[in-house]
């Protein structure tokens, strides 16, 4: 990574003095210890948790995707020239390795590996990204890019997501989750990308076309964040909210809604009672008594650190949704959890903690937690 911990803390250092005194060094160390503290994750009966990747190694590990025995995450931090973020692989023991390094792509918000049915792009990494690095790029129309994993070449532009809807002038900004539809389903061979800024989910096809798939009205539900699919592949599941993601409100106004393959949103939610639901994943048959249940990450207030030294509320949680639709707490003590993935007989959760781009906290404070059933 281009930006190291010492470089990031140089901002604070220069604010103190050009040549730091022993006192300044001590205060910087205290600040570092506070911002990179290992979180305390509390679990409900029936679960245990451990921190698989501690703060100090990843900037903003956003979404998770199991692939070839490891888990990939888009680490949305670090910059090199006009490019930013990287794709990192995490082993089952927490060891990190770089898949797509800095300098090859624009800041990725969501990603997937194109299936064979995606034409000439099959096997390539396809992602939604900001059109430029840093905070200004977050509120501009996002792009779809692809990276040929067999080469070391930079990403190639597939398309720019068009404006849609009426909120924020329809700008396709604040990208969130993005993933391919399950094979042999009505969603197959389409790449879906959610943008919070204009309440829209886009669909990308093998011919390179990028069009709006579903736009939420902003009144009933808004701000799509996470995307998943039903066990039979017939419905898309989307985490939405009635509030505004950056409002620091923790009211229980979030939900998981169901969307048909033609973009029609069901009137009745699958589950309600969340604050800021983000990632969604259904437990596999190997997950004991909880097999088949939906697990959902909830970012709570979803605070963005301003100033960068702000202590954030550890109000993030993980929930499960029973077959009857009841929302049950699984774990708490997270800050801004997003990604969720099942690996063997465990549930992995990624937490961006402070935000690298919007909050300008250029610190590797993200972490990964492993939750297991007892």
Walk me through the structure.
The protein is mainly beta and 374 residues long. It has a single domain, classed as TolB, C-terminal domain (Neuraminidase, 6 Propeller). 7% of the residues lie in helices and 41% in strands. Strands 1-22-21-20-19 form a five-stranded antiparallel β-sheet, with no helix packed on it. The protein has a four-stranded antiparallel β-sheet with strand order 2-25-24-23, with no helix packed on it. It has a four-stranded antiparallel β-sheet with strand order 3-4-5-6, with no helix packed on it. A hairpin with a 5-residue loop joins strand 13 (200-204) and strand 14. The chain is globular. The two termini are 37 Å apart. Residues 1-17 have low confidence and may be disordered.
Write the element-wise H/E pattern from the N-terminal end onward.
HHEEEEEEEEEEEEEEEEEEEEEEEEE
Question: Termini distance?
Answer: 37 Å
Overall spatial form: globular
CATH superfamily: TolB, C-terminal domain
Major sheet: size, sense and barrel closure? 5 strands, antiparallel
Biggest sheet: strands side by side, in what order? 1-22-21-20-19
Using the 3D structure, state the CATH architecture: 6 Propeller
- β-strand percent reads 35-45%
Alpha-carbon Rg, integer: 20 Å
**CATH class type:** Mainly Beta
Kindly report the CATH topology: Neuraminidase
Total count of domains: 1
Q: Total number of helical segments?
A: 2
Low-pLDDT ranges: 1-17
Helix content: under 10%
């Amino acid at each position: 990574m281009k930006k190291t911990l010492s470089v990031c803390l140089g901002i604070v250092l220069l604010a103190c003095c050009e040549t730091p005194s022993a006192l300044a060094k001590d205060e910087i160390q205290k600040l570092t210890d506070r911002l990179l503290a290992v979180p305390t994750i509390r679990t409900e009966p029936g679960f245990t948790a451990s921190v698989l990747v501690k703060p100090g190694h990843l900037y903003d590990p956003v979404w998770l995707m199991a692939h070839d025995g490891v888990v990939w995450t888009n680490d949305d931090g670090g910059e090199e020239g006009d490019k930013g973020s990287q794709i990192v692989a995490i082993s089952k023991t927490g060891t990190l390795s770089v898949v797509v390094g800095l300098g090859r792509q624009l800041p990725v918000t969501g990603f997937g590996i194109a299936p064979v049915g995606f034409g000439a792009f099959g096997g390539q990494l396809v992602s939604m990204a900001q059109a430029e690095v840093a905070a200004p790029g977050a509120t501009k129309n996002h792009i779809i890019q692809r990276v040929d994993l067999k080469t070391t070449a930079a990403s190639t532009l597939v398309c720019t997501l068009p404006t849609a809807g009426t909120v924020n002038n329809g700008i396709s900004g604040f990208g969130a989750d993005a993933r391919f539809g399950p094979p042999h389903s009505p969603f197959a061979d389409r790449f879906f990308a959610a943008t919070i800024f204009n309440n829209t989910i886009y669909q990308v096809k093998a011919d390179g076309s990028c069009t709006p798939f579903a736009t939420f009205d902003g009144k009933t539900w808004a701000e799509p964040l996470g995307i998943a699919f039903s066990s039979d592949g017939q419905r898309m599941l989307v985490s939405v909210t009635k509030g505004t993601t950056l409002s620091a409100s923790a009211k229980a106004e979030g939900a998981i809604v169901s969307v048909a393959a033609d973009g029609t949103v069901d009137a009745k939610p699958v589950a309600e009672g969340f604050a800021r639901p983000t990632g969604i994943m259904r437990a596999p048959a190997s997950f004991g008594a909880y097999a088949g249940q939906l697990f959902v990450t909830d970012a709570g207030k979803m605070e963005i650190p301003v100033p960068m030294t702000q202590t954030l509320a550890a109000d993030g949680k993980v929930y499960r949704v029973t077959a009857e639709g009841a929302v049950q707490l699984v774990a708490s003590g997270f800050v801004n959890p997003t990604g969720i993935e099942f690996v063997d007989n465990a549930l992995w959760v990624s937490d961006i903690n402070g935000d690298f781009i919007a909050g300008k906290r250029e610190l590797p404070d993200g972490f990964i937690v492993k939750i297991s059933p007892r």
